UniProtKB/TrEMBL annotation:
<dbReference type="InterPro" id="IPR007159">
    <property type="entry name" value="SpoVT-AbrB_dom"/>
</dbReference>
<protein>
    <recommendedName>
        <fullName>Transcriptional regulator MraZ</fullName>
    </recommendedName>
</protein>
<dbReference type="InterPro" id="IPR038619">
    <property type="entry name" value="MraZ_sf"/>
</dbReference>
<keyword id="KW-0238">DNA-binding</keyword>
<dbReference type="GO" id="GO:0003700">
    <property type="term" value="F:DNA-binding transcription factor activity"/>
</dbReference>
<dbReference type="GO" id="GO:2000143">
    <property type="term" value="P:negative regulation of DNA-templated transcription initiation"/>
</dbReference>
<dbReference type="GO" id="GO:0000976">
    <property type="term" value="F:transcription cis-regulatory region binding"/>
</dbReference>
<keyword id="KW-0963">Cytoplasm</keyword>
<dbReference type="InterPro" id="IPR035644">
    <property type="entry name" value="MraZ_C"/>
</dbReference>
<dbReference type="InterPro" id="IPR020603">
    <property type="entry name" value="MraZ_dom"/>
</dbReference>
<keyword id="KW-0677">Repeat</keyword>
<comment type="similarity">
    <text>Belongs to the MraZ family.</text>
</comment>
<dbReference type="InterPro" id="IPR037914">
    <property type="entry name" value="SpoVT-AbrB_sf"/>
</dbReference>
<keyword id="KW-0804">Transcription</keyword>
<dbReference type="GO" id="GO:0009295">
    <property type="term" value="C:nucleoid"/>
</dbReference>
<comment type="subunit">
    <text>Forms oligomers.</text>
</comment>
<dbReference type="InterPro" id="IPR003444">
    <property type="entry name" value="MraZ"/>
</dbReference>
């Protein structure tokens, strides 16, 4: 899979919860969905592709004010890591709950949209607009005011400890 989820986009949400997935994100989601890739590769030149890419929306972490979205391949890799943890342990139960139980699969329609379920719109207190924020291997869906507040509050916190004038790329060399 190539590319990444990059950038921030403001998208309209209609009364039924339909919202367009940014075109740049759709390409990455298509590449990260094995069923979509197989359908695309099986097409003849004059055929139209039916059905869009699928992806996973995780909403279970109550500490977060956003929805985290994974490609199908990305979620499969995460699930494999969860399944490697011994069954019944507190860590595995917590991860299963957040990433598997409290998640849903979305499919992009022919117009490049998904329907965000009412439950997820309520979690975000989403109105007529949503912010899509790329984070390389995932993307987030935010209520605009919450996104702006988070960016403003975390900007300084995230670069704490860097001397004035030091390039932020220096964070890449930190051992966490």
């Amino acid at each position: 899979m190539t590319g990444s989820f990059r950038g921030e986009f403001s998208q309209k949400v209609d009364g039924k919860g339909r919202v367009s997935i940014p075109a740049a994100f759709r390409r990455h989601l298509e590449d990260g969905d094995p069923e979509f890739r197989a359908r695309r590769e099986a097409l003849r030149e004059d055929d139209k592709l039916k059905g869009g890419a699928r992806f996973v929306i995780v909403y279970g972490d109550t500490r977060r004010e956003f929805l985290e979205c994974y490609t199908v391949d990305g979620m499969a890799a995460l699930e494999a890591r969860i399944l490697a943890i011994p069954r019944g342990t507190p860590s595995r139960r917590a991860l299963e709950r957040v990433f598997i139980t409290l998640s849903t699969v979305a499919e992009i329609d022919g117009d490049g949209r998904i329907v965000l379920p009412q439950k997820l719109r309520e979690k975000l207190t989403l109105g007529e607009e949503a912010v899509f924020a790329g984070t390389a291997d995932t993307f987030q869906i935010w209520q605009p005011e919450a996104y702006d507040r988070d960016v403003a509050e975390k900007a300084e916190e995230e670069i704490e400890g860097l001397a004035p004038g030091v390039d932020i790329a220096a964070l890449l060399d930190r051992n966490f």
